[in-house]
């Protein structure tokens, strides 16, 4: 009996996806629940499990755009499973196993690449055994292959050393064309829409990080032992933003037609850079979380983003966004609003600068911050007041603990 495998519904607003890669080969025997493909929506990359056990026939090529409900494969459920549960034909019986030998390249083995990953590794000249897979059972995904670096091949023993290429070798003028991923196309579309559909303005301030850095330094070890999580600056800024949003609710609101929707909660989107592009998972009800709770949620979402396992629900419904360009060395920027939200806070790198304290000039660590906002709903008083409140809370972090 042949059973069709179709693209499932993965969200109300999603009507089309891209088949990013197959994780099985045509003719493989697959078990019910095995991951057979990775599909890429506008918001995330998802693993697709098989619904039946049997021999699979692939009907669609990788990088194909497909509508929800499209048939991508067929499974022959009448086919018998290979002896011993192997997914592919086994080695001849007379071949004795060799201890400590690397695992055979079968679909369920560790370090076995998907077809798309195999193609990329071959092009790079990278040995699959040198790559750590992040897929199911250690399988190498397309993203793993794209991030892999080719190792330099050492010359055989006794081989004469080759001379360095001449400095006069002509430079390359080659070009390559790559299809934009669905996620990258969505990012481009949303950023353009944000620029064209909002009255965006940015206001700036600087924050003396001395006190919060001293507090973090003093309690970092104890915090880590008690909560089993590191204490970073993102939790301080998230908590400060949630408190400032209570005082300036327009910054936490959004325009819906001729109405304004105000939120009595703070679902904070944290911009995360992943191998496939920028994603913004959401920390729900951040106003009710402790610093430890915020740190744990941010770490959980960041790891899922890195591994391409964020769900659509985890990236929808934010009311305010924080982006930290400082981790890449950015000194100052004008972040673009994450629509339909009305504001976004940009953090930047920390640089030692001369600061006047009680009439004396001292050198303190300083961070520049930027708030981009939709001027249609947020006036200068709210935007400047919000940023000033965040500044005051970070510069005097005890206020966050005392809620004053």
Total tally of structural domains = 3
- Residue windows where pLDDT falls under 50 for at least 5 positions: 86-109, 151-156
Query: Would you tell me the structural class of the helices and strands?
Result: alpha+beta
Largest sheet: 7 strands, mixed
Element-level helix/strand string:
EEEEEEEEHHHEHHEEEEEEHEEEEHH
Helicity range of the residues? Answer: 25-40%
Please state roughly what percent of the residues sit in beta strands, choosing from under 5%, 5-15%, 15-25%, 25-35%, 35-45% or over 45%.
Answer: 15-25%
Briefly characterize the structure.
This protein is of the alpha+beta class and 404 residues long.
List keywords for this structure.
single chain, 404 residues, alpha+beta, OB fold (Dihydrolipoamide Acetyltransferase, E2P), Chloramphenicol Acetyltransferase, 3 domains, 7-stranded mixed β-sheet, 4-stranded antiparallel β-sheet
What do you see in this structure?
The chain is α+β, with helices and mostly antiparallel strands and 404 residues long. The protein has 3 domains: 1-86, RNA polymerase II/Efflux pump adaptor protein, barrel-sandwich hybrid domain (OB fold (Dihydrolipoamide Acetyltransferase, E2P), Beta Barrel), CATH 2.40.50; 114-149, Dihydrolipoamide Transferase, CATH 4.10.320; 201-402, 2-Layer Sandwich (Chloramphenicol Acetyltransferase), CATH 3.30.559.10. The chain has helices at 115-124, 142-147, 182-197, 210-227, 233-247, 291-306, 380-395, 398-402; strands spanning 2-6, 16-22, 29-30, 35-40, 45-49, 54-58, 64-67, 71-76, 200-208, 254-256, 259-261, 268-270, 272-274, 277-279, 282-283, 320-324, 343-347, 350-357, 360-374. Strands 9, 12, 15, 16, 17, 18 and 19 form a 7-stranded mixed beta sheet that branches. Strands 1-8-6-3 form a 4-stranded antiparallel beta sheet, with no helix packed on it. Helix 5 crosses helix 6 and helix 5 (233-247) crosses helix 7 (380-395). It starts with a strand and ends with a helix.
């Amino acid at each position: 009996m042949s059973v069709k495998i179709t693209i499932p519904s993965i969200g109300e607003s999603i009507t089309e996806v891209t088949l990013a890669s197959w994780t099985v080969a045509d003719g493989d025997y697959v078990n019910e629940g095995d991951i057979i493909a990775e599909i890429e929506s506008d918001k995330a990359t998802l693993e697709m499990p098989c619904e039946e056990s049997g021999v699979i026939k692939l009907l669609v090529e990788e990088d194909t755009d497909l509508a929800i409900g499209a048939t991508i494969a067929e499974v022959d459920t009448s086919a018998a499973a290979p002896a011993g549960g192997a997914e592919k034909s086994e080695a001849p019986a007379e071949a004795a196993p060799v201890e400590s030998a690397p695992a055979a390249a079968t679909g369920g083995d560790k370090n076995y690449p998907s077809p798309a990953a195999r193609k990329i590794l071959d092009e790079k000249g990278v040995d699959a055994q040198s790559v750590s897979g992040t897929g199911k059972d250690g399988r190498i995904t397309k993203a793993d292959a794209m991030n892999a670096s080719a190792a330099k091949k050492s010359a055989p023993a006794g081989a004469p050393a080759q001379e360095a290429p001449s400095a006069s070798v002509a430079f390359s003028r080659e070009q390559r064309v790559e299809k934009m991923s669905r996620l990258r196309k969505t990012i481009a579309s949303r950023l353009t829409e944000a620029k064209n559909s909002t009255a965006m303005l940015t206001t700036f301030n600087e924050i003396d990080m001395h006190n919060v850095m001293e507090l973090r330094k003093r309690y970092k070890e104890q915090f880590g032992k008690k909560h089993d999580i590191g204490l970073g600056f993102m939790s301080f800024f998230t908590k400060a933003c949630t408190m400032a949003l209570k005082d300036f609710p327009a910054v936490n609101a959004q325009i819906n037609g001729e109405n304004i929707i105000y939120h009595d909660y703070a679902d904070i989107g944290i911009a995360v850079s992943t191998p496939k592009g920028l994603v913004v998972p959401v920390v729900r009800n951040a106003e009710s979380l402790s610093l430890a709770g915020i740190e744990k949620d941010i770490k959980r979402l960041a790891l899922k983003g890195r591994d391409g396992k964020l769900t659509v629900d985890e990236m929808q419904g934010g009311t305010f966004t924080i982006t930290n360009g400082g981790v890449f060395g950015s000194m100052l920027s004008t972040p673009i609003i994450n629509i339909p939200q009305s504001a976004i806070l940009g953090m930047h790198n920390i640089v030692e600068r001369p600061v006047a304290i009680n009439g004396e000039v001292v050198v303190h660590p300083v961070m520049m911050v930027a708030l981009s906002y939709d001027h249609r709903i947020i006036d200068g008083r709210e935007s400047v007041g919000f940023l000033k409140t965040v500044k005051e809370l970070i510069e005097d972090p005890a206020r966050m603990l005392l809620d004053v």
